[in-house]
Amino acid sequence: MARYESLLDACGNTPLVGLPRLSPSADVRLWAKLEDRNPTGSVKDRAALYMVRGAEAAGRLRPGDTILEPTSGNTGISLAMVAKLRGYRLVCVMPENVSTERVQLLRMYGAEIIFSPAAGGSNQAVAQAKQIAAEHPDWVMLYQYGNEANARAHYETTGPELLRDLPTLTHFVAGLGTTGTLMGTGRYLREKNPDVQVIAAEPRYGELVYGLRNIEEGYVPELYDPAVLTRRFSVGTRDAVLRTRQLVEVEGLFVGFSTGAVAHAALNVAHEALREGRRADVAFMVADAGWKYLSTGGYGGTLAEAEEHLEGQLWA
Amino acid sequence: MAIEVRIPTILRSYTGGAKSVEGAGDTLADLLADLDTRHAGLRGRLVTDQGALHRFVNVYINDEDVRFLGALDAKLKDGDTVTVLPAVAGGAFAIAAAAALAGSR
């Protein structure tokens, strides 16, 4: 049955599609979970819906309330849609230099935006949002980096969907951001089968980005528990772009660059399994499609040109 | 035995500004001890007094996080590439870094 009572009910239950051309052999197969098929086109719809429902159940959110969230990405767009349909006002805190597509999308959904001053130093926007929250104690901050409902969304939906559709799954690969996807899905899968490997792929940006960070000012989301992971890969811009293009060329999958990074890690472990003569079913998350990133210049020209365009950009 | 070690901008004061340096060692601990003989103080920024990797430092051997390879006991071999990066994670980082980037332009 593919009929739903409302858009919110159409969240999750995304297709898991085989990638027969990219898979190394008949015994080592790759599968892509298409999270771009969610209502606003990204995996973040799951977390947004669970965080709002969680706050409602806890009595933290009542109709007409204001939600505050620091975000420049997909979570803001997901929350804007959920807030509109559930009757809340959404205020997003984001940096001044975020792309106009993001701003337009958020405003279309009715979100209000507070731009974070372009000052150096880490976690400026998060700190500012915390300060705004202190000034408006009646505003509700869902704070996706530390909200258990973010991980629970994946424990209760993504994980069960994966095992239902692929009982022979051996590896699960996803991007590492808030860590909610990996923590929730990973916990569920390992509870059901302790042998499942849970693999993180994190973007490695250009030097300019890291150059501004202090070792002492690092940030690890409160949700993160390394015990849930088996391995963790750092994927550079060139590999992410290469795999993004390979996915569309070979399998017809049009994905964002963060999925290119995830596919790179998935192909790594798949080819390792092939070399070692082990059977493997490697499922990886397609967090979103490529539409929002076309203006980055990463989809055209040579790999070197794309890498140059993305240098200094936060492509995941 | 040569292992290439990529150094983040913030720690290049210990390497005379070099983006990458070479070192030797059978494990990450050995490599850091070797590096410290030529780049005094570098090891102290990566390893705590208790002898563990600093919480906000990530070290990768050939793009894989050493915390899942035995941390300081992770094995090394000739031709490996070791990358040192400040610990950051997607979301929060993206916002903070984007704000910081805007300030640098």
* CATH class label of chain B: Alpha Beta
Tally the beta strands of chain A. 10
Count of domains of chain A: 2
Strand segment count of chain B = 5
Q: Counting H and I runs of at least 4 residues, what is the number of helices of chain A?
A: 10
- Name the shape of chain B in a single word: globular
Q: What name does CATH use for the topology of the largest domain in chain A?
A: Rossmann fold
Helical/strand content category of chain A: alpha/beta
Describe, in plain words, how this protein is organized in 3D.
The complex is a heterodimer of chains A (316) and B (105). With 316 residues, chain A is of the alpha/beta class. Chain A folds into two domains: 8-37 and 158-306, Rossmann fold (3-Layer(aba) Sandwich), CATH 3.40.50; 44-141, Rossmann fold, CATH 3.40.50. Chain A has helices at residues 44-57, 74-86, 100-108, 124-135, 148-165, 180-192, 207-211, 237-251, 257-275, 303-310, and strands at residues 16-18, 28-34, 66-70, 89-95, 112-116, 140-141, 171-175, 197-204, 231-236, 280-286. In chain A, helix 1 (44-57) crosses helix 2 (74-86), helix 5 packs across helix 6 and helix 8 (237-251) crosses helix 9. In chain A, 40% of the residues lie in helices and 17% in strands. In chain A, the strands form two sheets. A six-stranded mixed sheet of chain A has the order 1-2-10-7-8-9. In chain A, strands 5-4-3-6 form a four-stranded parallel sheet, sandwiched between helices. The longest helix of chain A has 19 residues, at 257-275. The longest helix of chain B is centred in the last third of the chain and has 15 residues, at 90-104. Chain B is globular and about 30 Å long. Chain B is built from three helices and five strands. Chain B has a single domain, classed as Beta-grasp domain (Ubiquitin-like (UB roll)). Chain B has a five-stranded mixed sheet with strand order 2-1-5-3-4, covered by helices on one side. The N and C termini of chain B lie far apart (41 Å). Chain B has helices spanning 28-38, 42-46, 90-104; strands at residues 3-6, 20-23, 57-61, 64-65, 81-86. Mean pLDDT of chain B is 85; it is low at 89-95 and 97-105. Chain B has 105 residues and is of the alpha+beta class. In chain B, 37% of the residues are buried. At the A-B interface, strand 4, helix 4, strand 8, helix 7 and strand 9 of A face strand 3, strand 4, strand 5 and helix 3 of B.
